[in-house]
């Protein structure tokens, strides 16, 4: 099957505070190669795990992590899809519960309301993956239409799929939405 042409389509990449976030330049490059216009959003703690200057250089846009003031111009074009990777325990639980206390989580809640295709890739410690709140939150997000790429049976060191796999999953989800519409 031929990959879809995503030329000019807007992809938000939401990064949380986990070591895998340091690899976001690879994800951005893969997405751009597929024709996506990429915009990066980070949780406040996620900023500590990413190379903001490098991501801004790659995307030609600011990395956002804070709410804009009411008189500030809107900074992001409407999204056609979203990847949340790595998604932490905290972000997954707040997002599923509708606790929009950060720009990133508020944006994710809105994207769900707009019906934008979303792929979430949780990355967390094994003990947190076993926490009952996490399981409920993943189930709730899936029920709301979020594609959660997480295998609880995988060993912790293998839970984060490659960026290539994340992009394959995004294209599959977007393709599925297009064939349904």
From TrEMBL:
<feature type="domain" description="Flavoprotein">
    <location>
        <begin position="13"/>
        <end position="130"/>
    </location>
</feature>
<dbReference type="InterPro" id="IPR003382">
    <property type="entry name" value="Flavoprotein"/>
</dbReference>
<dbReference type="GO" id="GO:0003824">
    <property type="term" value="F:catalytic activity"/>
</dbReference>
<dbReference type="Pfam" id="PF02441">
    <property type="entry name" value="Flavoprotein"/>
</dbReference>
<protein>
    <recommendedName>
        <fullName>Flavoprotein domain-containing protein</fullName>
    </recommendedName>
</protein>
<dbReference type="InterPro" id="IPR036551">
    <property type="entry name" value="Flavin_trans-like"/>
</dbReference>
């Amino acid at each position: 099957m031929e990959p879809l042409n995503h030329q000019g389509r807007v992809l938000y990449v939401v990064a949380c505070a986990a070591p895998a976030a340091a690899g976001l330049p690879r994800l951005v490059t893969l997405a751009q190669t597929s024709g996506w216009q990429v915009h990066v959003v980070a949780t406040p703690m996620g900023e500590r795990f990413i190379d903001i200057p490098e991501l801004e250089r790659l995307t030609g846009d600011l990395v956002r992590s804070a709410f804009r003031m009411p008189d500030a111009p809107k900074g992001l074009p409407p999204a056609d899809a979203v990847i949340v990777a790595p998604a932490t325990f905290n972000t997954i639980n707040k997002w599923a519960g509708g606790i929009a206390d950060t720009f990133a989580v508020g944006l994710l809640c809105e994207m769900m309301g707009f019906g934008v295709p979303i792929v979430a890739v949780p990355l967390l410690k094994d003990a947190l993956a076993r926490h009952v709140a996490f399981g409920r939150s993943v189930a709730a997000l899936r029920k709301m239409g979020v594609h959660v790429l997480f295998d609880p049976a995988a060993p912790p060191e293998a839970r984060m799929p490659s960026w290539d796999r994340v992009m394959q999953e995004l294209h599959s989800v977007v393709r599925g939405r297009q064939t349904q519409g």
